[in-house]
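To: structure desk
From: M.T.
Subject: fold request, one chain
Message: Could you run this one when you get a chance? Sequence is below, nothing fancy, just the single chain.
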Amino acid sequence: MNRGNRSQFATRREMLARAGYGLGIAAVQTLLGGPAGAAESAPAFPNFAPKAKRVIFLHQSGGPSHLDLFDWKPAIKDRFDQDIPPSVFGGQRITGMVAHQDRFPIVPTMYGFRQHGESGIWLSDLLPYTAKIAGRMCVLRAMHTEAINHDPAITFLQTGSQLPGRPSLGSWIDYGLGSANRNLPAFVVLNSLPANGQPDQGLLARLWGAGFLPSRHQGVQFRSAGDPVLHLSNPEGVTRERRRTQLDGLAALNRHLQERVGDPEIETRIAQYEMAFRMQASVPELADTSKEPESVYALYGESSRKPGTFAANCILARRLAERDVRFIQLYHRGWDHHGGLTERLPALAKDTDQASAALVLDLEQRGLLKDTLVVWAGEFGRTPYGQGAVKKDSYGRDHHGRVFSLWMAGGGVKAGHAHGSSDDFGFNVAEGGVHVHDLQATILHLLGIDHERLTFKFQGRQFRLTDVHGRVVKEVLA
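Reply: Done. Structure tokens follow.
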């Protein structure tokens, strides 16, 4: 074959390659229902004046017992070891952990409850620091979810679907509002190890993933040891100037490829490289808490000096909020108390009680609480009946999604307010029920987003965080 033939062959190959790219783009257009990449542009948000600019979500993974922390039930105080009445149980689903039990004996909490604040919010004696911010809290006592096991329940709370693959709450917010600080990600994730060293349920990165949204909207996980973000530091011998030159060259190549194939993920890749470069300068300063005054460590507690603890991460969350990071997701594990609740719950409460309250107070004194929404929640609660052998001072509880509690503060919610209630057994919603999608709709509303308008077209239909229902809980809005 002569040179001319080789040139002709190369041209033909290029033509076929371009045709293949065109077919791929046509397929994307068909799936998205429009020009490739058209679904990337979110509607203009906010839709109306927001009350909050950012969210700090303190997720207590494993299902904290509402009956031992937030929901005082004096009606069952003297009913230890009596069966849950059939009229209350109502044929509800049970998990495989208690399917072998012949009966479901009531186990009242062994912990005392007191009223706090001007509105008299009931809180467990396990939460003495949280009690001090009762006047700033909005407690939701009639939350309910559709899931009964951890993975679907956490996935549901974080993504609006029990099935994996949907964008997370933080990703939706990033998609709708974008970043307020070009030098930091809009969505940051912090994972905490409980002081007792028993994390229980695992956490999968898809919980802060972008799902079918462009991947630049996924959460960025910060670490407590080494570089705060993986591969943040340049290799030895590579200067910042040299890295800049490398990225410029790489961006040029990526843009050339983008012109050929029209893949929106290439633009995402370019943007992520640029964000990583800026983070090399911004993140080390952010993560360095050594200059925090002693008064801050005293406020958050002694464990706040140890990287990776819930308290240390709460300080970091406040520093992220100061720098206008839109969504800060803080996970704390270890709340799955099928047995040994009375030994383990006090340790978990101690882990989070002082630091959670300190975060609210710290934000308030810095003038940030008014536009920062703090959410403290697990994926569900625990049953009023015991699991396995029970004693008055030694018991465990199974998963319970029929009703559970959480609290919020700041960011446009009522202060010193309790919304909704469970029945006398803490088993079912009595009034003011709030579905998980209602909570998600309310969070978006506080950020100035109409949850029905924040959509993304994928596989032929418009998806949203709240799927096909959900209402804003106006009763909790200030």
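Reply (cont.): The longest strand covers residues 54-61. Let me know if you need anything else for the meeting.
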